[in-house]
Amino acid sequence: MENQMRSRSSYTILEIDDLHNPEVLCGNSGISGSIQLHKYDDIPAFLKGNPYVKEGYRVLLPGYLCLRSLFSWSNESINIWSHVLGCLIIFFLMIYDNIIGIPSLHGTKTDHVIVTIGLLCFQFCLLSSAGYHLFMCHSEKASERWLALDLNGILVGLLGCYLPGVHYAFFCMSVWRDVYLITICFLFGGLFCLQMKPKFLTARYYRLRIILYVLICAYGIIPSLHWVWLSGGVSNPIVKFFFPKVVVEYLLAILAFTFYISKIPERFSPGTFDFVGSSHQLWHIVVVIAFLYWHHAGKQILAYRISNQCTYP
Ligand SMILES: [Zn+2]
């Protein structure tokens, strides 16, 4: 009963309050019929955001139909499944790393903790994003709450990139490692608090949100260049080994962000990419690739750290 109440209350928090109530039906969707999809011109304002995606919208579905829409085809299907499957892959990587990967490298308990925290951050990011795309069509309130979770999920995902990266790059420079880890926690904590304010999540602050996200990503350039300098420049073997991976990760981030902001390719052919190939779907896929690439790079630098002694003061 207590569990029921707790779960009921959590649904209320997220405005998915009719998940168990088939009486509450909205839009033109039936209980047993397929979920009806709508055109851009017919959807409520809170679902509008990309005029180049013309069809395939789910509108005002009760919670249980939002869940059922997981298994029906709409313009959100690839957005949802790209991050559900990405989350599953990263979950299995986490199990593999803890049981086989890290022990085979003779990693320490700290390595287990750092790698696991990074992968949990990625999973949180992907799951909150999948949740947003699944439940955003329920109501305006649900869309706002899940958007807040989705945006905080992106922050947590970025944190999952920063923490292992700084920990292993500055492994032999513990003072700078702590300085950057503390700075990162303050920056992310500040943005997290800002996102708790509902006003910040409105369309009016869209540009400011984008600018802050770009800045918090770009901030990583400072510790990266500082690390190259502290390591003695690009001739150092670890810099040669790890710095190109940082560059590739940034290129992936720029590619993902370009899709996110430009609405390419659908802006060149409105209606063509409604279900497959739209910019938001490409952004999702590149985000998963960036997480997997960063995890792979992290494992390589972990192996390097284990097999090479610190040579810095
Ligand atoms: Zn998304």
Automatic annotation (TrEMBL):
Q: Which Pfam families match?
A: HlyIII (PF03006)
Keywords, ordered alphabetically: Membrane, Metal-binding, Transmembrane, Transmembrane helix, Zinc
Q: Where in the cell is it found?
A: Membrane
Q: Please tell me whether the keyword Transmembrane is annotated for this protein.
A: yes
**GO MF term list:** metal ion binding; signaling receptor activity
Coiled-coil ranges per UniProt: none
**Which segments cross the bilayer?**
78-100, 112-135, 147-167, 179-196, 208-229, 241-261, 273-294
Q: Which InterPro entries match?
A: AdipoR/HlyIII-related (IPR004254)
Q: Looking at the keywords, is Membrane present?
A: yes
- Binding positions (Zn(2+)): 133, 280, 284
Q: Tell me which GO cellular component terms the UniProt record holds.
A: membrane
**Principal subcellular localisation of the protein:** membrane
Membrane topology note: Multi-pass membrane protein
Family recorded in the similarity comment: Belongs to the ADIPOR family.
This protein is called DgyrCDS7774
The lineage, from the top, is:
Eukaryota, Metazoa, Spiralia, Lophotrochozoa, Annelida
